[in-house]
Amino acid sequence: MHLTIRHETTYSYDQPVPYGLQQLRVRPKSRPGQTVLEWSVEVEGGAQQLMFEDEHANSVDLVSFDPDQSQVTIRSFGTVDIEDQGGVIGKHRGHVPLWLFQRETDLTEAGPGVARLIHQLDTGGSDLDKLHALSTLILREIPYSTDQNSAELTAEQALKAKHGVCQDHAHVFVTAARSLGFPARYVSGYLMMDDRVDQDATHAWAEAHVDGLGWVGFDVSNGISPDARYVRVATGLDYHDAAPILGLRVGGGTETMKVALQVQQ
Predict the structure, then answer these.
(1) DSSP secondary structure of 176-218
(2) Cα 109 from Cα 92, distance rounded (Å)
(3) Among 188, 201, 203, which Cα is nearest to 257's?
(4) Which segments of the chain have a pLDDT < 50?
(5) Are 40 and 93 in contact (CB under 8 A)?
């Protein structure tokens, strides 16, 4: 399936920004089951300084703001061919060892909430059965709700809140899967919704490494493994490693952000 994506993010400031620098992880890469046919990144109010591959083999564009800008717009667009592999990504690749994906981070530190979650889990069946059961249990315990839209909640905070968005589901899954002994990672990317072209935001899900299969994806929020509607862009230990845009600035006062995203066949 060919998917065409157009992703535009505009930052506006009530005072000119003398200096700003951002890392963009908005450029998909060709990987097993995913072929990038064309892709471009454009910046208004800034300039692309360089492109590099980070430790997780994500493509990263480094963008600097032009001096004293009050508005910066980043456009990322292209076409990707996706093959439905039932969520199976396959063997581990990249620059970091597999064991690294069992390491906790500030956002994925297991505590009493994760322990209680795992205690409810039916640990029978295969490893794959166990992980699917974990995904189902998380969605039951944390129903999807946009009342909370920060990507900075820890897994424990999301469990305590009892509701969350895709980033929360991914963090809880990653944390619990690691506690069960599975290497696990956070994934950011794009999802084509069946009932619309305009999307509210980018999407996030999780992957766990299963012996004999390799990396397998789990979209807790939608209760499925990723199919041909999903475009993987970046992976990492948590949101901070795979966020579409992260950066810093000096001055600028109050920042507002507007996102326009279209994903269609």
Answers:
(1) HHHHTT--EEEEEEEE--TT-SEESS-EEEEEEEETTTEEEEE
(2) 23
(3) 201
(4) none
(5) no
The pTM of the full predicted model, rounded to 2 decimals, is 0.94
All CATH 2.60.40.2250 domain ranges in the chain, comma separated: 2-82+245-264
**Which 3 state secondary structure label does DSSP give 72?**
strand
The pLDDT, as a whole number, for residue 145 is 85
Taking CA atoms, 252 is separated from 63, 71, 74, 114, 248, in Å, by: 17, 10, 17, 39, 11
What is the per-residue pLDDT for 211?
95
The DSSP call for residue 142 is: S
pLDDT at 102: 97
The conformational region for residue 129 under phi > 0 = left, psi -120 to 50 = alpha, else beta, is: alpha
At 12-39, the pLDDT tens digits run 999 999 999 999 999 999 988 999 999 9
CATH topology for 88-242 is: C8orf32 fold (3.10.620)
**What integer pLDDT is reported at residue 149 of this predicted model?**
65
**Chain region(s) in the chain for CATH 3.10.620.30:** 88-242
Packed helices 112-120 and 127-141: angle between N→C axes, nearest 10 degrees:
120
How buried is 123 (Cβ within 10 angstroms: 0-12 exposed, 13-18 middle, 19+ buried)? exposed
Burial class (CB in 10 A: 0-12, 13-18, 19+), 201: middle
The number of residues in the chain equals: 265
Class of domain 2-82+245-264: mainly beta
Q: Which two tokens mark 182?
A: 């599975």
Region of 186 (left: φ > 0; alpha: ψ -120 to 50; beta: rest) is beta
